[in-house]
Each structure stands twice: as structure tokens, then as C-alpha cells.
Amino acid sequence: MQPRFIPQTPAVCGLFLLALGTVQIAAEERARPLVIAHRGASAYLPEHTLPAKALAYGMGADFLEQDVVLTRDGHPIVTHDIHLDRVTDVAERFPDRARDDKRFYAVDFTLEEIRSLQVRERTTANPRKAVYPDRFPLRRSRFSLHTLAEEIEFIQGLNQSTGRNVGIYTEIKQPKWHREQGFDISRVVIQTLKKYGYVDQNSAAFLQCFDVQELQRIHQELDCQLRLVQLLALPDVVRADNGEFRVDGGKMNMVTLAAYAAGIGPDFLLLRHDFGPKGRWSDLVNQAHAAGMVVHPYTLRADQLPAGVADFETLVKQLVTDGQVDGFFTDHPDRAYQTVVR
Ligand code: CA
């Protein structure tokens, strides 16, 4: 059984929470579910910007997520896609730098060029419209991309100035693709985390990836002692005749995943068949817990609720109380925090 992260009683909850009179959890209470800020407080500010991370921090998140890709000059930067065109003005700024598929890849741009881009809310491809139209408006204010090191320094700086110990939850994006471009992204990310003191299971850090082989390589070949989280997408998980949940083309089950992973990060839709009153829970959490792993599903959003759920708070309570999850990714760390500390 891996040691569980015990969320600290926050010394400073931020004005936002103090204004709401949030009750701080007592230290002796059992570990409450972790609130993992998905790309920052991304329901309120453009994802993976430092303002979105600051807001998530102030809203009481236990961990802040970083998705990492590499630049042409090999710097790890924090952004969700290997492409830049859905969240920046790269197509307007560098119109002749797309590949044949008309996409603009981070790995084709230097860090200096990427720093010069304006970040905005995520858009669809054509027409270019906001994916979540009620979130932060497009083309307002000024936001930019930053490196993994800069984000870690930002979080560690806040940890010093507030006395809290908010962790990092870093995802390695598309390692196979990066290898095809000539980069070992896992090695780069692990080196950066190590430089900032994230080295083992006691570190306030999780390292996540969808790629089963790559996480095994990180554990064995790269000898990474951090807590690894195997992300699981809906179509990649199958249920065998004996009831076991299997992944990686049916080759792995929860027991074999637990040989290298401290936890799983499943799509939350894998945890329950129908979130309405007639739905029932799948056995995935039980199987993962029996194997000694924690379960941190993604992604709970107030503006993208599953059918049959009245509101965000109901969904959180369902997953935490009945679903027995150990934490969850959310775009709304404020509402998640307020729900789990009650
Ligand atoms: Ca992610």
C-alpha cells in the first residue's frame, strides 16, 4: 500500500474562501479527497496560465496540474496539446509555420517564440469558437505560456509565502510522438522535477501519463521513485469475463498496473453506469483499491455535467461518498474544495 497524501490544513485559504467562512478540516480527520486543479482554475481563466494556477491555489486546491510538451529547443512547457493553435494566436502570428496537416506544433517553435504568443480560452478548429462559451471571454487581457520550471517556482514560491504545501501533478504528453521528433520528454520532465526536489513517494508530486509502456519505463529504466498515476481513457478500458477491468489491449489488470503505479486516473464515466438515480457503480474503484492504488478520476466540470445529475456539488458528493474516490481533477477547485471540506 502506498502512503497516502494527507492534505494539510491550509494556513491560508485565500480571501475567496475566508469570505465564505469555510471551516478548516481538523488534522486528525481521515484523509479527505484531494482536489486537483485541472489545468489550474480553468473554469475561470485560460487553462495553464499562471493566473489560472494562482486562482486555483487561492481556492484551496491540494494539487495543481501541469501538462507538459517540449519546444524546438527542448524546453518543457506547460500546455495541454502538442499543438499550439487551439489556445494561442500562433496561426495569426506565424501563418507559414503550420505542418501539412495545418496544425502548429510546439516542437517546431523556440521557447522565445512561444513566449511571444497570446494565450486565450480553448477554441474549436473551424469556426474558431470558444469550447466553453460561458467561460473567460476570448481576446481579453494578456496571458502567456510558461515553462515547467517557472510553474514549479511559482507554486513553491506560494508555498513559502503562505505556509501551505500544495503539490504538483505533472502529465507527460505523448511520449512516443516526442520520441519520433527526437526528444525523450520523460527524461526531461523527471530531471526538472528532480532539480526542484521532487524525487520520491514522499514528495508532494504525482507523475501521470496515458502511455502504459512509458510509465513502466519511467518506473524501471529511468528509476523514477515518484508516485506514478496511470491515466485511463474510456475506450481503452475493457471488462473481462471474470469481471476484471483490463487495459493495454487486455494485457494489464489493476494488480499488474499496481506493480509500477501508485494510482489510476480514470475518466470518471468509467466509475458509474449512468449517473442518474437508476445508475450503478462499476467495480473499478474496488479493484484499484484492492490492488493498493488510489483513484483520481478526471474531469469534473459544472458546465459539463453527465445526464441525470442536478449540479456539480451532487456529482462531487456522489463520487466521494458512494464512489469512494481518493481525489479528482476539476476545472472548479473552489466548488470542489467547499464540497469536500464539509
Ligand atoms: Ca492532463
In short, what is this structure?
The protein is α/β, with parallel strands linked by helices.
Main sheet attributes: strand count, strand direction, barrel closure: 9 strands, mixed
Count of domain modules: 1
CATH level 1 class label:
Alpha Beta
Bound molecules: calcium ion
* Uncertain residue ranges: 9-29
Which architecture does the CATH hierarchy give at level 2?
Alpha-Beta Barrel
Structural class: alpha/beta
* Strand elements, count: 14
Assign an overall shape.
globular
Rg, rounded, reads 20 Å
The CATH homologous superfamily is called: Phosphatidylinositol (PI) phosphodiesterase
Q: Total number of helical segments?
A: 12
Q: Residue-averaged pLDDT, rounded? A: 92
Helical fraction: 25-40%
Along the chain, the helix and strand elements come as HEHEEHHHEHHEHEEEEHEEEHEHEH
Binned strand content: 15-25%
Q: What is the first-to-last residue Cα distance?
A: 27 Å
Structure, described:
The protein has 342 residues and is an alpha/beta fold. It contains 12 helices and 14 strands. A hairpin with a 5-residue loop joins strand 2 and strand 3. Helix 2 packs parallel to helix 5 and helix 11 packs across helix 12. The longest helix is centred in the middle third of the chain and has 15 residues. The radius of gyration is 20 Å and the shape is globular. It binds calcium ion (CA). The site of calcium ion has 3 residues, from strand 2.
